[in-house]
Every structure is written in C-alpha cells, then in structure tokens.
Amino acid sequence: MMRSAKLACMPSYPLISITVAVLCLAGVRDAAAFDYADALDKAILFFEAQRSGKLPPGQRVTWRADSALSDGSASNVDLVGGYYDAGDNVKFGLPMAFTVTMLSWSVIEFGDTMPRGDDAEDAVRWGADYLLKAATATPGALYVQVADAYQDHRCWERPEDMDTPRSVYKVTPQSPGSDVAGETAAALAAASVVFRSRDPAYSSRLLRAAQEVFGFADRYRGAYSDSLSSVVCPFYCSYSGYQDELLWAAAWLQLASSQDVYMAYIRSNGHTLGAEQDDFTISWDDKRVATKILLSKMFLQKKVDGLNVYKAHADKYICSLVPGASGFQSQYTPGGLLFKESDSNMEYVTSTAFMLVTYAKYLSANGGAASCGSTTVTPSTLVSLAKKQVDYILGANPAGMSYMVGFGARYPRRVHHRGASMPSLRDRPARIGCDQGFRYLRSSEPDQNVLVGAVVGGPDQRDAYSDSRDNYAQAEPSTYTNAPLVGALAFFVAAGAPLHNK
C-alpha cells in the first residue's frame, strides 16, 4: 500500500493550494507516503457498516442489512436511522452528534481534496437526517438515546437480529441536557454548511433546527448525565460538563449563519464557558480545544475582532503536543504514537491529527505560526507531527501493523464488533439468539466479515496490541474515531495532486 508522493509545489488547482503549500513546507514532497486516498475511501466506508435503519440501494457494505426499523414507534416518534456508535447496537446521541460535527468539519475544510467527496457527504447526511428527527419529533424535547445499553450488553447479537428493548430517552426543560443538545446544535449547524450550495433547502432546515436546539440547550441548562445518569453513565457521561458544548455550538452557528447574535453570545459568555481554560484533549466529551481552533480561524482571517484569546489558547494546546516546545506535556509511545488513555486511545490520536492539519491550514493561509514562549512553531511542524500519527495508524509502527481494518497486509482480524464477528444474514439467514452470539465474541477465529476502514482502539503505551475480540479497550472501533481521521487523510490526499475540482 505504499507509493511515492509526487507533489507539485506550484499547483494548478486553487482549491487545494493552501493544503499543498503546507505540505511542501513540511517536506512531504520526497517522503514515501501511504496510499492516503485508499485509506480515506476505507475510512468513509466504515460509516456504512455502522448504519442503522433502512439501508439505501447504493449500500456498499453488503454484509449489513436493515435493522431497528421500529425505533421510536413505542413512543409514537420516528427515530429510525442514524449510527451505531461502536461495536454494540445502541444509538447514543452525544457521540453520534460529535461524529456528525467532525465529519462535517472534515468536508468543509478538506472536501475538495476528497476523490469520493459524495460518499463523505452521504455519511454526513445519514447522521444529520437522524439528528433532525431527534430534534424535531416532539416540541420542547430532544431525543438523545435509543436502547438501554445495559440490556444491549447482555447479548451479543447482530443488529439485524436484536430483540433487546429499544427504549427511547429524551431531554426536556424539566430534565435538561445542555451538553447533548449543544453538540446536536453544533452538528446540525456544521452539516448545514456542508449542504449550503449542494442542497440549500435541506441546509436551511438543518440550520433552523440547530438554532432551536441551541436555544433549548442554553435556556434549560444542565448536564444530561444528571438527568439520564442511569442510562448514559458510565458509557457516555459528560465528564467535562455542558459549558464547552454551548460555546462550541455558538461557534458553529456563527460560522453557519453569520448572525451577529452568536458572536455577541460568544463575546458575552466565552469567559464563563471555557474560553480561558486550557485543556489538551479533544473528544466526544470535551470540545474546548476544538472551539478555540475554530474561532481562531475567524481571528486569523481578520473577519472578527476580539478573538485573540482563542488564538492564544489554541497555541497553548499546540505547544503541549510539540516535543521540545515550551509548554510540551504530551506522552508518546516509544514508536511515536500520542498516548492519552488506555481505552480507545486512537480516538484522541485521530482528533489530534485533524486539529494539527486544520490549524496548520489556518495559520498558513494567513501567514501565521503558533507561539510557544520564545519558540515559534510553524505550520510545517504541525503537519509533520500529524503525518507521523496518521502513518503510525496505517502501519508505520514497531509492529508493522495497520490499525485500520482492511488497509495493508496486516491489520486486526478480531474486532470487538457484533456485526463483523458474526455471520451475516446473507450467509446465515436463521436468527442467532442473544446467548448464542457469545460464542462468536469468545472465538479466536478471524471476523466473519471484514469491517473495512474501522480504526480500532489501538496499542498501549508500549506499542503493544492484543488482537483479541474480548479486548474491547484496544479492539473496538467507533464512528468518532474515524470522523476526524477523514479530514486528516483528505489533507494528505493533496500530496497526490493533481485532483479534479468538485
């Protein structure tokens, strides 16, 4: 899967000129590179394997079939569709909304370097359609989860077979959830930008819903972890609180609508919602860093005054990642992988890689750099660091193993994922019951279906990986791991220019 990157530093394709310029600065020109276009296609394909609901005629992951076609019906609402977030069959609203936000951001920034950009937009739309339903099904409420995770986890079932309760959960003025509502607003707003030119009517619907959900999130403040703790914790508790999601949503609404009211909100509330808090992690739970980088774009473009605080704190985040820079405090494995957590560490790696290339793009487009005390960190340094993380995922690591399923010759064969581990309906139409499925979980045999494009949780702090389905901390993939990787890979696809304009 290796090829030499031939990069023209004087491109004839203006839509990718900024990306190419940064890549040239980074010295990528003569370096051996993975087939990023192939990895990108696979990373997007993974989302088709995670689809819930009635699958479309163009479905490419053919071992999947329709599932959960009655979601919401017991409560007289239509909640069919959306994504299963990881290896189980629950639809969690907070990580799903974050997935849609990050997928949308990836398309907004790097869609013009995606050879199969329509597939990426389809992935955004599949999630946005569901969030639109969840936000508009019942006035004054937002549906945030389908299925009880505890009940779901008592079984190992294909999505097509599941018979565990599909209970629905919502936040309301009496049981608020500003975190999940704020993230949903951000996702709908970001998706509205994706479809602004392609489908203006749909874009307008998304934006209106985003504005309404944001108003709900801000007016009825509270964490959904408090309102729905018995069903969302410990799975997706909002450990960072809800303040970061309110500021994040306001930033996306400002970008999507250009309405002064959102910038006024940011200026008036930023200091109480985390604008001056330094945090060095970006995840489905914590959006503080991502918000600072997004708002830095407006500051760097000199479109909005008074946002210098966000640039300053975005720089601090960058400084924390760069070895040798003042403020450096990150941990890397001996093989060079950023290491944050023992459970699903790759979600932090992919989010960080996206932030690095996105911030590098913003800085490069405006002649800027990151300030780390007396040290200046250039965009090329950020790109080089991001490339090392992406290449590690794809196989440039001590194990010589790709942590993207289906990419390269050696990759995880026993993924913690129900549908991948079990025979498909096509191969075994008879139902496989709740307890019957556990033999597939515990089997040492390779997966029955290759979950192409899935990025697993990854190795430990010593670069060690155990290819065992029971090892969910290392072997489980997720949509929110893949979503930011889509953008990072698209950035590096520009190294394979020329590309056609879209």
Descriptive account of the structure:
This protein has 502 residues and is mainly alpha-helical. The protein has a single domain (2-496), classed as Alpha/alpha barrel (Glycosyltransferase), CATH 1.50.10. Helices cover 45% and strands 5% of the residues. The chain contains 19 helices and 7 strands. Strand 6 (370-372) and strand 7 form a beta hairpin. Helix 6 (178-194) packs parallel to helix 10 (243-257) and helix 14 runs parallel beside helix 19. It is globular and about 65 Å long. The chain starts with a strand and ends in a 9-residue tail after the last helix.
- Roughly how much helix do the residues carry, as a percent range? 40-55%
Q: Any idea what the shape is?
A: globular
CATH architecture classification name: Alpha/alpha barrel
Give me the secondary-structure category.
mainly alpha
- Terminus-to-terminus distance: 26 Å
What is the strand tally?
7
**What fraction of the residues are assigned to beta strands by DSSP?**
under 5%
The number of helices is 19
The CATH topology, please?
A: Glycosyltransferase
Q: Return residue spans where pLDDT drops below 50 for at least 5 consecutive residues.
A: 1-16, 24-32, 497-502
User: What number is the mean pLDDT?
Assistant: 91
Structural Rg: 21 Å
The biggest sheet amounts to: 3 strands, antiparallel
